[in-house]
Amino acid sequence: MSPAKKPRPNGPDIDRRRALISLAVGLLTVSSKTFAATSSPLQRAITDSPPTTLSKVLLQQDDWKIFNLLWTDPGQISQACDAMGWQTTEEVIAWVARVNTAVGNTQTFVSLIDPPTRVDYDLLPSIEWARIHEAIVAQCNIRDDFFVERSDAVYRLPTKAQLDYLAQACPIRRRTWAQERMDCDDYARAFIGWLASNGIGNIVNGFAATTAYRQGELQGGHAVVLVMDDTRALWALDAQQGRLYAPKSREAAKLGRYILADEMRVARAYF
Q1: 3-state secondary structure of 124
Q2: Which of the listed residues 64, 79, 111 is the one where a domain comes to its end?
Q3: Per residue in 37-60, is it b (16+ CB within 10 Å) or e — as a string?
Q4: In 120-205, where does DSSP find H-type helix?
Q5: How many domains does the structure of the chain reveal?
Q6: Quick one: DSSP state of residue 203?
Q7: DSSP reduced 3-state for 147
Q8: For the domain that residue 233 is a member of, what is the CATH number?
Q9: Is the dihedral of CA 186, 192, 198, 199 positive or negative?
Q10: For residues 184 and 240, is the Cβ–Cβ distance under 8 A?
């Protein structure tokens, strides 16, 4: 690769360079076999630049973050371009320019569509499953037929503030409630999946099927996500509301619109 020319602060040359950098990061991390098999003009545009160098440069290009929303990994870039009907880098440049002009604050827009988790998994303290199980029994009202299952032996503990943020940041809250098709259990499962998709699925979180009671009489069922903070306090996270509740509180009992309920009991939990 020939030495890069010193870029000008503005103008079509630097815009084009940004487009090529963004495309190259995706294209060059795809295997050479995949490259050879494709006939897309966009994929053939760049073939010989070091991906690591290009990646460092791309991190400085905030204008292109909105373009990166079109795929979740570099291998999907060709599908994204085909779906948008792009055949040349000029078409990509024109689209990004139009979108950036229309949106204005691109970086904020991207963070709204795909919020950062702001949780560094490697810095979180750990906890063994046995301690989590003990906390469930001590901090939750559980039914006589209570059943719990777990998938890991050791989990991580975020702070309460981090849990509050995650509950609000999850994009699933934007979905409209629909009976059976998109109701409490779907919100809870989607929240758990969102954690996993962001690489923090191992923080203490479990899908919990609960039942509400009023003076011992069954009112109905609900679904929440049981989470634990770094003080080992358990919380019932309602993924539709994006809020946390103490499992034994009257507020938790009323989740699912059981406004007269005074107790929530956990029937099933899957961690």
Answers
A1: coil
A2: 111
A3: eeeeebbeebeebebeebeebbee
A4: 129-139, 160-169, 184-197
A5: 2
A6: B
A7: strand
A8: 3.30.460.70
A9: negative
A10: yes
Tokens representing 148 are: 């719990």
d(CA 63, CA 137): 50
**Whether the Cβ atoms of residue 196 and residue 178 lie closer than 8 Å to each other:** no
Average pLDDT over residues 212-228: 97
User: Is 76 within the bounds of a domain?
Assistant: yes
Examine the domain organization and report whether 151 and 105 are in the same domain.
no
* Helices within 29-76 (DSSP H only): 32-37, 41-44, 51-58, 65-68
| Same domain for 128 and 74 | no
Last-in-domain residue among 111, 144, 162: 111
User: At 32, is the pLDDT very low, low, confident or very high (cuts 50, 70, 90)?
Assistant: very low
Strand blocks (E) in the chain: 126-128, 141-149, 154-156, 205-214, 217-228, 234-238, 243-245, 263-270
152 and 210, same structural domain? yes
Q: Which domain holds residue 39?
A: 12-111
Q: Is residue 49 part of a domain?
A: yes
Query: Would you give the DSSP letter of residue 229?
Result: -
Distance between CA 139 and CA 187 in Å, rounded?
Answer: 23
Domain assignment present for residue 22? The answer is yes
How many Å apart are CA 33 and CA 109, to the nearest integer?
36
Q: Are residues 143 and 244 in the same domain?
A: yes
pLDDT tens, 86-116? Answer: 777 677 777 777 877 887 777 777 777 777 7
**Is residue 257 in some structural domain?**
yes
Contact 46, 1 (CB under 8 A): no
